[in-house]
Fold TetR/AcrR family transcriptional regulator.
Amino acid sequence: MDLIDANQRLLAAAERLYYPRGIHAVGMDEVRAEAGVSLKRLYQLYPSKEHLVAAYLDARDERWRARLRTHVERHAVDPGERLLAVFDWLGLWFAEPGFRGCAFVNAFGEIGGDAPLVLAVVQRHKVLFREYLLDLARAYPTPDPEALADELLLLAEGAMSAAAVLPEPRPDVAARARRAASALLAAASVG
């Protein structure tokens, strides 16, 4: 097995194990066994659990943002509808089997303050999500796209947390967040 294949197997195994169960609950040997990779190869690629967790989150970030971007591009043309499509996508994500909230917030809650590599990936994910919202907000007729992006980011992040912990149906959380986003757009519009 070459390094590329071993790396893909390890990242897939980390995703299958860390997201549903948590980082502390899963040891490196369990990830290695799930991936079918030797211990030597695991530590050749990832010298510590922190390195593996950061890589797993980095890969998840790329997939998560790509899925969001694809949904928005396929389902909306109008700048306002593109911003609201973010919340539609969140509703689809919240309804997926095995949804456990934001993997980045979960990781930070478990180990972020004690793991600088993980903290850097978590912060980068949130910055890139905000930048995506800002790109969408710049196409919307508002005098302050920065403020609009910040407000929508807070609304989306709150919806992710609420969907993870509240007992009510998760798509309802996204629908309410979408209504709040629509009100923000109306208040921010100059046209």
